[in-house]
Design a protein that fits this description.
Layout: H1 3-23, H2 49-58, E1 60-64, E2 70-71, E3 86-87, E4 94-99, E5 104-109, E6 111-115, E7 122-123, E8 125-132, H3 135-149, H4 153-163, E9 170-174, E10 183-192, E11 198-206
Parallel strand pairs: 1-4
Antiparallel strand pairs: 2-7, 3-6, 4-5, 6-8, 8-11, 9-10, 10-11
Length: 208
């Protein structure tokens, strides 16, 4: 055997060894998931059927309006959707958080509504309800809104002075909105001193 043939033979053996070694390198298997499984990757709530069920079960809802609006696509509903009404009056209150551009709105509520049209990609308003079982509790809710959301303090105190201690008073009054969270927060007061439960309808909209 010539020297050239021996060199070629050794090269072939080396190539074969390298090929064999390469074939033996383990390749990690691709992760598998069950068909149809859903992985929750966001802290924010969705408003599709599964998301609403979770809100009702967990009694927690967190909405992202940090951009100033609540986009339908972000909560997994179609652009022609009007959004759900979430009512838990018979099962307890929801801990609601709305994240605004410069602060958070937090409340305990048993009714959440959404306002829009079938031609808009976003919701023009999120509405929720606060309740109190006394005039004092009602005034405390109002002052809480003044402190947290920048609702006009003078307007609030004038209303409390005129109506808050009169058991025969009836009033429907919209306080001057606050914008300290970067969203417009309006307290729509529905007070009837003869009733056991007093209601504030809170309207949250993009700040103008």
């Amino acid at each position: 055997m010539t020297r050239t043939m021996r060199v070629l033979g050794l090269a072939a053996v080396c190539v074969g060894l390298l090929t064999t070694t390469a074939c033996q390198i383990p390749v990690p298997a691709s992760p598998t998931t069950s068909q149809g499984s859903t992985v929750i990757t966001s802290e924010y709530s969705t408003l599709d059927a599964a998301g609403v069920d979770r809100i009702r079960t967990d009694k927690r809802a967190k909405l992202d309006m940090s951009s100033g609006t609540l986009q339908k696509s972000a909560v997994r509903v179609s652009e022609d959707s009007y959004g759900p009404e979430i009512n838990t009056q018979n099962s307890g209150k929801i801990d609601l958080t709305i994240v605004g551009p410069s602060g958070e709105i937090r409340a305990q509520t048993d009714r959440i509504r959404f306002k829009t049209t079938d031609a808009r990609p976003d919701f023009t308003e999120v509405t929720y309800f606060l309740t109190a079982d006394s005039a004092e509790g009602f005034a405390a809710l109002i002052r809480d809104g003044v402190e947290k959301y920048g609702i006009d303090a003078d307007d609030a105190e004038r209303w409390i002075s005129a109506n808050g201690k009169d058991s025969s008073a009836k009033s429907e009054y919209s306080l001057t909105s606050g914008k300290s969270t970067g969203l417009e927060v309006n307290y729509d007061l529905r007070f009837d001193g003869s009733k056991e439960t007093q209601v504030i309808i809170v309207h949250v909209t993009p700040a103008s």
